[in-house]
Structure formats: C-alpha cells, structure tokens
C-alpha cells in the first residue's frame, strides 16, 4: 500500500494545478459560508446571553401617571410574574465637548433589577444613592468615566451630577431615539439611569410612565390580550403596549441576523453548487485520465479496495484540507470584517463567533461529493479486464455504424461539434462555468446598484424636503403656529398591523398633511398622485405580500389602539420607505397629532433651531449619510461576495481549460503530426471557447437577472423596498471580464499546444 501513497504524492506534484483548483474551490466555498455562519450564529448567541444577563422584560407598557393601585392590578394578572414601574424622561447633557446632547434617563430602584438590570461596565454597582450611570458608548464619545461630573438640564434647572459608572442595557442594542434617525448617534444621544430617590430629590416627585413586565414561562398570552387588560387598568391613560419582539432594539438585531443569513445562504446555494459540480467533474476527469495506471495496478495484483482507497484519497484529502482552511479563514477574516461593520450600528457587550452545524454539513458534503466522484469514476474502469484497461480501453457505448455525411462546415467547427457529441459533460461544464460566473457577479454588483438606486428614489424623488425633526409630545399645535408662513409638511407615523382575510402584516400607518415635500407615485404609470380625501394608498411591496389590489378593503389596527378600522385602497404606489399605508389628513377620522415635521427651506430650520418643541433636527443629506452608514455592512458583504465570485470564476475557468488540454493532448499531437499549422489549431481552440462563451452568455444573461430579482427580494429589510437594478455599464463590464478571462485561458491552452511532444503523445501503450 505504501507504493500507492508514493504514487499519490507523485500525482499531486505532477497534476498540482488540478488538485489546487479543487482545494481553492472547497476553501472559497467554506470561507464565505462559514464566515457568515459565525456572524449570524454569534449574534444570536451573544444577544440571547445579553438578554438573560440584563433580565430583559417581556412586555413594556407606557401610560400616564401610573399609581400603586395600577401596579397592584397589573401584578394581579395571571400571566405576570414580575412587574415594576419606572419614570422615563429626557434631559440635556452638557459635557464641554458637545452642548447639544440628550440623555434619556430611566429611574431605578432595587426591585426594578428583576426586569431592568443594566450591565455595569465600569465604576460602582447600582445603589440607591446620588449620581448617574450613563451608557458606555455615550461616555466613550465624551471622554467620561466614573468619578467625572456632567451637567444636566432638567425643567430649566442645571444640576451637576456625578458619573457613578458606565452601563450597557439590552433594551438599547440599537439605540435610535427618534424616527428621523436611521443609525445610532452616540455623540448626540445617550441613555442613563438614576435612582428613584435621587430623581425625587431633584424634581420633587417621580411620575412613573412605563412598566416592565416579566411574564410567566407558560403564559402563551397574545399582545391583543395584554393590551385589552392594560386598557381596563389605565383606560385613556394608556399610550402603548410593546412585546419584546416589537422593541426596535430587539427586532433590529434579529432582522440583521436574518439578513446576513439570507444573503449567505442564497448566494452560497449558487456558489457552492457551481463549486461542487466543478469539483465533481474535476475529480472524475482526473481519475478518468488514469485508465492505464488503473489497469497497471490491477495487473500487478492490487486489490480493488486498495485502488478504491487510493482514488478516494484524491478527492478526500484535497477537499478536506481545502474545507479546513476555508473554515479557519472564514472565522478569522470574513466574520471579523462583517462584525466590525455591524458594531457601528449595534452595541453588544461581547461579539461571539459561533460556527453552526450548517458549516459542518456543508464541509462534509464537499468532502463526500469529491470522494464519491473519484470512487465512482474509478469503479467504471476497475470493472474492465486488466489486459484491455492497461491499453487504455474502457467499455463504451457502441458507436453508430451510419455512414458519415459530408459537411460544408469548416474543419474547426466539425472538430468542435464532434468533441461536444463525444464529451457532452465537458461542454456542459464550460457553459455552466460561464453562466454561473455571470450569475454570481451580477448578484454581487447588482445588490450594490439596487441599494443605491432605491435610496436615490427615496431621497431625490420621494422626499424633497431639506430638513426634518421629531415633534415633542403636545408641541404640534404651537409648532404649526410658529411655521405657519414656511414651506412645511407634517406626518403622523404609527406602527400598525394590517389584515386581509387570513393574511396579516406589520407596517407603518402614515397620516400626511397637505404639502409639496412628500411625493407618491403610482406603481404602474409612475405618475405622481395626491392622497385622496377618502381611502388610502398602499406601497407596492406590502400590496404584493398581502395580495391587495386597488379597490380592496383591508383592516388596520395601530399599536396605540385595540380597535380595528377598515380602509379602502385607492391605489398602489411605488414608495420605497416606509412600507405601509398612506392616508391624507382629511381621510384620517381621528385627531391629527403629527410627530414629524418636514421643512422645505432654511428659514423653517432657523425658526425652530433650538426650539423646545422639536428634537432630532437633521438635514436630508445627514439622513442619507446615516442610511449609508447602516448599509455599509451590506456593502461590505457585497465586496466579499464579488471578490469571491471573481476568484471562483477564475479558478473554474482555468481548471476547465487545463483539464480540456490534458484530455485532448493526443488529439493536439495528432494534428501536429498531420501537418496542421499552429494558427489552425489555435483557431480550433478559440472556436471551442467561443461556442462555450456564447452559449454560457445566452443562458447567463436572463439567469443572472432572474437571480438578482430573487436575491434582492430576499435580502431586503422589512421596512424598505429595494428595487432590483444593475447599471448597463456594470452589466457589460461583467460580461467583458468573463469573456476576456475565458479567452485568456484558451490562449494559454494554445501556448501549451506548441509544447506538445508528438512522439511521446502518440507512443503506443503496448
């Protein structure tokens, strides 16, 4: 058996390029998938541990003037395990670095730690004393640490408060305070905690306005039931009820996990299938080119199991090694790159890298397929008689006895078409390589173009305001008076549940006042349309998901209400963000209380700059920059996928070109013996290349566009529609890259043909 090991290493040295291509394809496939797999499983494990460490609540209830009697009623509900009230309020923080900062403060007491237990990152542990615990990100931006002081402005009074320590809380993994922001701004906003006793000393009283509830493990209660119970307790004092999955911080981290998973899985399906098909073909053709060696081994008395084991080692060793290196590279580099981008929007105390069972399954699949390819190919040869196998004769299908017809085709075309007929697998793999390369590269670059195109639609076509701000509760009437002479528009956005028959979807209910700063366009015609006085418009993506058409009646229940109302859909509009339903102020049957103002010029900005009626005043350019920051993680993943697709395409095309040369070695030698000129042989090689390229492009163009549509639809966020798009320049560039590389590979083959040894290639095996 040791001689077979010697032969294996000699073959490895002689055919290193083919073995290396299998190694590379296995490594690249595992690098991409395992790297992403580490991220989404790691985020899930880290966030769940974070939830447990901070005793994250199950339900948040927001209401006015919560009393001890209210708390008794809430604690008396059958599904409530623990319930604690707290006061949440905003203060202006002055650190010397940035005067215009805001801290959202929540009161704490010993009992609160059962449902609200922030992680102490530095400084003192919580105690019922004077001072403030501020979030770690805000402290880092303002160079604050335990023992420093910070000035806070509360009710027109300024107080110097000692920083007791820094904290992190799972409620604020994704800390965005206002709807006008899309990414956390730790320089401007932060969260903090003060003891209830200290707040009472500062303000004179504590007015609790929120409750955190820890539910019993087997409650199985619905959000509707919780809200109904809370309405019975608080009546008109109830503001809203949110379950854990409704909290922006919680669903944001879950959505980003799902997005990474979808991007990795869907891209890897094409990526890995193309790799596996190529690896299978490569291993089959490598073994198939060793017919004489197999016959020699049989003639020398090697057992079948020894020969099977020898060729199984071909596939197993290389794919096992490639997969192992891929897992290591994915964990070290790909996961680190993606996590570093995610850290710009999400805050976790620890970022774990957890390799899931999905990676192990893929790794074993690659090894199994490569090993089986070698064994099954060897089996076809081993079945023969040694005397025939050693001469290179393998049992084949009976050739047709029909006389050959003369053809008007040139010899290079006849040679190419006959080669396809004799070796269809070789031709199919060439076509699959071209089409697969185009699909992967179009998907990578196309998602990039789709994101940019969609956000251009949002910030240049759908929204034409210059500034926007969130309106503080109760300040809408005064604000409308202050901005009466300015070009402004208002909206009231509510999270809502929409139902049609058995279909239910969450989205945003937007009530919009008259104005010229927000624009809606019909999906079919692209014509701008004003909101009607009766009925509503629905976004195309939501309409498609729910099966809604113009004229349909759907039911809507805002999160701030327990009652549903019906809405007639007047039109389907091409609105990218937010996803939901739009109503005019006239069509809204309740009181219009806007929570966002849009400003069309600088005079409006100057009028409310520094006003106590608004917060989060920002420009549309800043919004676009913030959105670009949030999407940087998606773009980084696209960088990885585009590079991987390019490398994989190069490896596959090079591998197929080299294998084709090895298989046709004797054919090229025969042509040289018969007196064919170099340019004639080169023309045959390039004709074969051109046919593969043309067929691959014909299949790849529609296939890549169809896959891009599917891919963009799957990886899009719920609150934003990305329209599939790839620029013509990028599409043509991809096609040219694939064509040029394919031609270069075949020119390399032409160069190798010149070095064919005619005597050695045509030497008899007898």
From TrEMBL:
Cellular location of this protein? Cell membrane
The record ties this protein, via Pfam families, to:
FtsX
Keywords linked to the UniProt accession: Cell membrane, Membrane, Transmembrane, Transmembrane helix
Membrane-spanning residues where? 15-36, 263-287, 308-334, 354-376, 427-448, 637-662, 683-708, 728-749
Membrane topology recorded in Swiss-Prot or TrEMBL: Multi-pass membrane protein
Q: Which residues form the ABC3 transporter permease C-terminal domain?
A: 266-379, 640-756
Look up the domain of life of the source. Answer: Bacteria
Q: From the Swiss-Prot or TrEMBL record, give the protein name.
A: ABC transporter permease
Name the source organism: Kineothrix sedimenti
């Amino acid at each position: 058996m040791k001689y077979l090991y010697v032969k294996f290493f000699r073959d490895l040295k002689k055919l290193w390029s083919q073995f290396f291509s299998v190694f590379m394809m296995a490594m690249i496939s595992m690098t991409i998938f395992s790297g992403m797999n580490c991220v989404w499983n790691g985020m899930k494990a880290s966030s769940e541990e974070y939830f447990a460490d901070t005793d994250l609540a199950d339900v948040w209830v927001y209401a006015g003037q919560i009393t001890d009697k209210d708390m008794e009623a809430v604690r008396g509900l059958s599904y409530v395990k623990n319930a604690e009230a707290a006061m949440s309020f905003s203060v202006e923080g002055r650190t010397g670095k940035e005067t215009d900062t805001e801290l959202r403060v929540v009161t704490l007491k010993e009992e609160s730690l059962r449902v609200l237990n922030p992680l102490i990152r530095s400084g003192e542990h919580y105690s019922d004393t004077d001072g403030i615990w501020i979030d770690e990100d805000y402290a880092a931006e303002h160079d604050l640490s335990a023992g420093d002081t910070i000035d806070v402005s509360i009710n027109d009074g300024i107080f110097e408060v000692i920083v007791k320590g820094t904290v992190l809380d799972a409620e604020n993994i994704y800390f965005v305070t206002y709807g006008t922001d899309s990414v956390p701004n730790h320089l401007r906003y932060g969260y903090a905690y003060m003891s209830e006793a200290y707040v009472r000393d500062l303000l004179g009283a504590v007015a609790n306005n929120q409750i955190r509830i820890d539910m019993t493990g087997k409650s199985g209660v619905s959000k509707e039931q919780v809200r109904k119970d809370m309405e019975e307790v608080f009546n008109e004092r109830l503001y809203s009820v949110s379950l854990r999955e409704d909290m922006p911080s919680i669903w944001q981290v879950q959505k980003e996990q799902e997005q990474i998973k979808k991007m990795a899985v869907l891209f890897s399906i094409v990526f890995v299938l193309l790799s596996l098909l190529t690896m299978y073909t490569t291993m089959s053709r490598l073994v198939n080119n060793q017919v004489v060696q197999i016959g020699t081994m049989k003639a020398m008395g090697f057992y079948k199991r020894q020969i099977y084991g020898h060729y199984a080692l071909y596939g197993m060793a290389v794919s096992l090694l490639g997969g192992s290196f891929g897992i290591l590279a994915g964990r070290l580099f790909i996961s680190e790159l993606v996590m570093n981008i995610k850290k710009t929007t999400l805050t976790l105390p620890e970022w774990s890298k957890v390799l899931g069972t999905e990676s192990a399954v893929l790794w074993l699949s690659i090894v199994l397929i490569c090993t089986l390819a070698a064994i099954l190919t060897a089996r076809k040869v081993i079945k023969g008689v040694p005397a025939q196998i050693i001469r290179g004769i393998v049992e084949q299908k009976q050739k047709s006895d029909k006389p050959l017809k003369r053809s008007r085709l040139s010899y290079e075309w006849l040679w190419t078409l006959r080669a396809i007929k004799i070796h269809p697998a070789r031709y199919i793999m060439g076509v699959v390589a071209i089409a697969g390369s185009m699909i992967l590269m179009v998907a990578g670059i196309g998602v990039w173009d789709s994101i940019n195109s969609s956000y251009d639609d949002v910030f240049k076509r759908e929204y034409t305001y210059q500034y926007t701000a969130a309106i503080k509760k109760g300040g809408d009437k005064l604000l409308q008076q202050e901005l009466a002479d300015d070009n402004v528009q208002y909206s009231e956005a509510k999270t809502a549940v929409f139902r049609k028959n058995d279909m239910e979807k969450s989205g945003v209910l937007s009530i919009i006042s008259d104005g010229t700063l927000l624009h809606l366009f019909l999906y079919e015609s692209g014509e701008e349309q004003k909101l009607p006085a009766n009925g509503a418009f629905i976004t195309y993506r939501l309409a498609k998901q729910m099966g809604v058409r113009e004229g349909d009646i759907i039911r809507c229940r805002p999160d701030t209400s327990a009652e549903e109302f019906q809405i007639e859909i007047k039109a389907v509009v091409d609105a990218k963000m937010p996803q939901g339903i739009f109503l005019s102020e006239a069509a809204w049957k309740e009181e219009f209380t806007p929570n966002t103002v849009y400003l069309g010029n600088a005079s409006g900005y100057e009028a409310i700059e520094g006003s106590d009626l608004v917060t989060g005043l920002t420009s549309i350019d800043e919004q676009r920059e913030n959105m670009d920051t949030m999407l940087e993680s998606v773009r980084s993943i696209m960088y990885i996928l585009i590079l991987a697709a390019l490398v994989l395409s190069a490896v596959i095309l090079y591998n197929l070109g080299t294998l084709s040369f090895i298989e046709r070695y004797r054919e090229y030698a025969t042509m040289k013996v018969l007196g064919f000129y170099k340019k004639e042989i080169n023309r045959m090689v390039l004709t074969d290349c051109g046919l593969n390229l043309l067929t691959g492009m014909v299949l790849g163009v529609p296939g890549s566009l169809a896959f891009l549509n599917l891919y963009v639809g799957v990886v899009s966020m719920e609150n934003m529609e990305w329209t599939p798009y790839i620029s013509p320049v990028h599409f043509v560039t991809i096609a040219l890259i694939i064509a040029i590389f394919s031609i270069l590979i075949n020119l390399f083959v032409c160069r190798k043909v010149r070095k064919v040894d005619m005597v050695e290639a045509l030497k008899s095996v007898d």
